[in-house]
């Protein structure tokens, strides 16, 4: 009786008859299926940036260091898939996250707030879970839409915020999964979808309204509303990864809304103007330096065009979630490594003409240099690269994060093991 009175004191303002363990468990089950995919693909993105070369951000992660391995170059669409899932699914799950928070909000006003050690652990896990996921979603969406908005490193904050969220998520699942499973077994989803009326759940849960109001929507209507919101966001998001007709519906398309002309009419994440690149630095005097220890070999663009050219259809996939597939023509990087006289290749440092950009240099793994489709691209879709797309030459490597496909290449230093 005392517990019921305590529950009532904190619950009188929450009168929806929809709330209860079952509805909360349904939302929780969906998030339990989807959030691990968002987590794993996010961590894979960090690995794809090459933390073994110190170029992933943050570089120093202490004991939270992830396993380091050479990021695969096959299939070519690998990073397009993993990062598209990370960003796209993260946005699609947002309505379900909000619905889950709505369904459990009475629990936050129960008095006294902590009644046992289990309650204390649950509240701590909720702080990490809710705070972490809201921080990741809000900063992630803002980073998609606005370049360098924050007064701090988004990449660093997003990485540490992810681990706060992961800790809260794992703890909360461990505490609440048994109750979720028992609740879902007690009433089938099909049964609820067949019910036209909303009857309040029975029990002593803090989520069940003490003085319920008249229902304004059924549970199946609530599920349809939340599910419809998720589908709507999927339509507005998927096109940035899949392309095709859905590309025109992708109003959440990030900074890639900057386009070129003709054969160069595809996404530009960083323009030549933003990078401080002009016609002088990329004009007739431009040369490419290939370095191998103390040996330097120099090519101008005309000499590169006389070398054997290779054409490959490859995607560029950006960390913000957008991707595009284009047909690239240029000199295979492995041919340039041979021209530099490299023997046992370990890695290659690519440097851009750009002087101040955060990604003006990138280290490529040996498998990325030696892949037959890895190119120093000179042309795209049958035309010369535009200045915004990296003229006179840029890197294009299968399955590699877009920012490491360095534009306006000035030098490539091949390193032996």
UniProtKB/TrEMBL annotation:
InterPro entries: OxRdtase_Mopterin-bd_dom (IPR000572), OxRdtase_Mopterin-bd_sf (IPR036374). Residues 283-415 form the Oxidoreductase molybdopterin-binding domain. Keywords: Membrane, Transmembrane, Transmembrane helix. The chain crosses the membrane at residues 21-49, 85-105, 126-146, 158-175. The keyword Transmembrane applies. It comes from the Bacteria. This is Molybdopterin-dependent oxidoreductase. It comes from Rhodococcus sovatensis.
């Amino acid at each position: 009786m005392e517990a019921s009175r305590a529950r009532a004191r904190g619950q009188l303002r929450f009168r929806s008859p929809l709330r209860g363990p079952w509805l909360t468990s349904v939302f929780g089950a969906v998030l339990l299926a989807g959030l691990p995919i968002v987590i794993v693909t996010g961590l894979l993105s960090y690995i794809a940036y090459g933390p073994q070369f110190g170029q992933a951000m943050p570089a120093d992660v202490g004991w939270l260091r992830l396993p380091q391995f050479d990021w695969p170059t096959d299939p070519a669409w690998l990073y397009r898939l993993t990062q598209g899932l990370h960003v796209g699914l993260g946005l699609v799950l947002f309505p379900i996250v909000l619905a889950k928070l709505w369904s459990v909000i009475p629990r936050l006003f129960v008095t006294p707030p902590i009644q046992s050690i289990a309650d204390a652990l649950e509240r701590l896990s909720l702080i990490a879970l809710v705070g972490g996921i809201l921080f990741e979603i809000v900063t992630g969406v803002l980073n998609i839409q606005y370049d360098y908005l924050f007064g701090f490193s988004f990449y660093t904050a997003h990485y540490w915020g992810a681990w706060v969220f992961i800790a809260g998520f794992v703890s909360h699942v461990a505490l609440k999964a048994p109750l979720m499973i028992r609740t879902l077994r007690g009433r089938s989803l099909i049964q609820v979808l067949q019910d036209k009326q909303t009857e309040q759940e029975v029990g002593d849960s803090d989520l069940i309204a003490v003085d319920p109001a008249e229902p304004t929507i059924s549970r199946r209507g609530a599920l349809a509303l939340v599910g419809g919101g998720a589908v709507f966001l999927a339509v507005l998001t998927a096109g940035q990864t899949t392309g095709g007709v859905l590309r025109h519906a992708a109003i959440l398309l990030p900074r890639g809304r900057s386009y070129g002309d003709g054969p160069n009419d595809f996404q530009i994440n960083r323009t030549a103007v933003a990078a401080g690149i002009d016609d002088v630095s990329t004009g007739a005097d431009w040369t490419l330096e290939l370095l191998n220890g103390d040996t330097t070999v120099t090519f101008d663009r005309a000499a590169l065009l006389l070398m054997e050219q290779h054409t490959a259809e490859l995607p560029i996939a950006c960390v913000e979630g957008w991707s595009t597939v284009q047909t690239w023509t240029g000199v295979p990087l492995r041919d340039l490594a041979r021209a530099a006289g490299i023997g046992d290749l370990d890695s290659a440092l690519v440097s851009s003409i750009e002087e101040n950009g955060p990604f003006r240099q990138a280290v490529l793994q040996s498998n990325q240099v030696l892949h037959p489709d890895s190119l120093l691209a000179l042309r795209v879709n049958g035309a010369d690269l535009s200045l915004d797309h990296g003229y006179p030459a840029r890197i294009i490597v299968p399955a590699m994060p877009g920012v490491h496909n360095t534009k306006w290449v000035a030098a490539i230093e091949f390193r032996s093991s």
